[in-house]
Amino acid sequence: MGSSSDGCAARYDSDGTLSWVARFVAPGSGNDIHGLEVANGEVLVLGRYETSVDADPGAGTLTLTPVSGALGTFVVKLSAATGEW
Description:
This protein is mainly β. It has one domain. Helix content is 0%, strand content 48%. It contains no helices and 7 strands. The protein has a 3-stranded antiparallel beta sheet with strand order 3-4-7, with no helix packed on it. The chain has a two-stranded antiparallel ribbon with strand order 1-2. The chain is elongated and about 45 Å long.
């Protein structure tokens, strides 16, 4: 993969209005979101990263960096109501 990509999870109200969006910053290649599951009022986001990635979907920063030569995996649990963790 030759370009960086960010991922996001979003919630829309029944009338189509955006309720919230959570952005996951992936500054390097090979970083992506693999899955998303909504259950019991929670959103689970799973991702894989080859380079450093900001796994905090809010204004804060939680930088994860994989061990040299290895892939990393993250799981973030968000509130389905607010998009916060």
